[in-house]
Amino acid sequence: MPFIPNHLTPEQLNTVQLDGLKWTLTHVYNHSPFYRDKLDKAGIKPEDIRSTEDINRLPFTDKEDLQENYPFPLRSVPFESIVRIHASSGTTGKRKVLCYTQKDIDIWADMFARCYELAGLTREDRVQVAVGYGLWTAGVGFQAGCERFGAIAVPLGPANADMHCEMMVDMESTVFCATASMALLMAEEIHRRNLVDRIKVRKIILGAERHSGAMRKRIKELMNIDHIFDIYGLTELYGPGTGLDCEYHQGIHYWSDLFIFEIIDPNTLTPVPPGTIGELVVTTLCKEGSPLIRYRTHDITRLLADSCPCGVVFPKHDRILGRSDDMFIYRAVNIYPSQIDHVLSQIKGIGSEYQIHLTHQSDGRDMMCIKVERGIESAPEDDSLLAERVGADIRRKILVRCQVELVPQGSLPRTERKSRRVFDQRNGE
Ligand code: DLL
User: Fold this and answer.
1) Mutate which of 179, 204, 234 to test ligand 1's pocket (most atoms within 8 Å of Cβ)?
2) Is pTM beyond 0.90 here?
3) Is the CB–ligand 1 distance for residue 326 below 6 Å?
4) Cα dihedral 385/386/392/397 (nearest 10)
């Protein structure tokens, strides 16, 4: 039996969504004082939901709602029905803690199994999991999905490079799952140790952070990989596995029978049409423990309306282009790190790794310095030309002047978690 319910017609999907929306509203209204209060304030009762468009009338939920009601925000079932919690570290303040019932855990494993199926895995595959286990949803998500799918999980977690290399060779792992940063780190290690011909990994599934085309290209080349799949997810919405790009890599298919994705303009909070970039807002359709109603992810992307050559009926969103809270203002220009890595990705001769340092100069002006690694094919003598090229392209495409510093290949820190790109020292950070 396939895991992806590809037989669903658009009409059937719409019915599933409407039923799920009604169920969720009734569930939270009856069981969560927080949501009941929120809906009462907005003047909405569950029975007011008559079509999926009525979602527009519902109030938003945001990360502050999860922090203010710590430690069990959004809880909508009695404690005896909760079998697990997960948490993600908020950038500021308390962790976001989410509750799971057994049904939530089962649905999460099913949706993750769909991702493995979409990535073309078979039960013969050996899946080396290099993301963290514990409070974070990553490790257990990849593992439970793998077991549900029926492939062999090789559950290392971040571990160290020695152990990953050893297990990859000995276990003959065929799939490697990691954060984008960890995938790069391992690709470089495998290349450095001359292991490429001894490993059988042909597919990498990575996510948890935005990553550039240049980074994917480098990982693919270093490890001789056929496909890199981009997996999306967040703790609030079960965890990783809410969607994955198919082998055509033209967007991330997401499971619209389990949640509704909307894109809104983050300033006006109104929905924008498919194709328009904005903030992703999610509403769950069958989540029991901590349901989400129009939860603002702060992730920036867009819905893609076109059908996919792969034939999967589930809709797509674009890769995550950044986070609305990643934006920084430099010399009166709003800049997302993704704009910088987009510019860098187009320049031959530089590596995929970079950092953005913002400082306040003694003359009162702000300065942005981009440290970027020299590409393997470049020599230190090329530095000044490359720096000039980067500076000129940033000026032309983002309309700001900056300093550029070329640093040796491999000298910027590598991490097995999520890489930090922006270092804003303007407020004494
Ligand atoms: O990072 C879950 C996850 C683990 C997804 C492993 C994929 C792989 P959180 O720690 O709650 O959960 O962080 C969620 O990470 O809102 C995005 O900003 C970012 N993110 C997750 N996947 C991607 C991706 C996990 N594929 C936050 N591309 C999200 C870009 C991603 N950003």
Assistant:
1) 234
2) yes
3) no
4) 160
How far is ligand 1, taken at its centre, from the CA of residue 138, in Å?
Answer: 9
Give me the pLDDT at residue 91, please. 54
Query: Maximum Cα–Cα distance for the chain, whole Å?
Result: 70
pLDDT at 418: 83
Rounded to an integer, what is the distance from CA 23 to the centroid of its chain?
Answer: 27
Cα of 241 vs centre of ligand 1, distance in Å, is 10
Q: Which residues of the chain have pLDDT under 70?
A: 90-93, 428-429
Query: Which pLDDT score is estimated for 376?
Result: 82
Query: Residue 216 class from Cβ within 10 Å (0-12 exposed, 13-18 middle, 19+ buried)?
Result: buried
pLDDT digits (tens, 9 = 90+) for 65-109: 998 888 999 999 999 999 999 998 755 567 899 999 999 999 999
In CATH, which of 3.40.50.11740, 3.40.50.620, 3.30.300.30, 3.30.160.250 is domain 328-427? 3.30.300.30
Q: Is the beta carbon of 207 within 6 A of some atom in ligand 1?
A: yes
Q: Within the chain, which residue ranges are assigned CATH 3.40.50.12780?
A: 1-324
Give CATH 3.30.300.30 domain extents, the chain.
328-427
Q: Is the CB of 210 under 6 A from ligand 1?
A: yes
Contact 116, 145 (CB under 8 A): yes
CATH architecture label of 1-324: 3-Layer(aba) Sandwich (3.40)
| pLDDT of 189 | 93
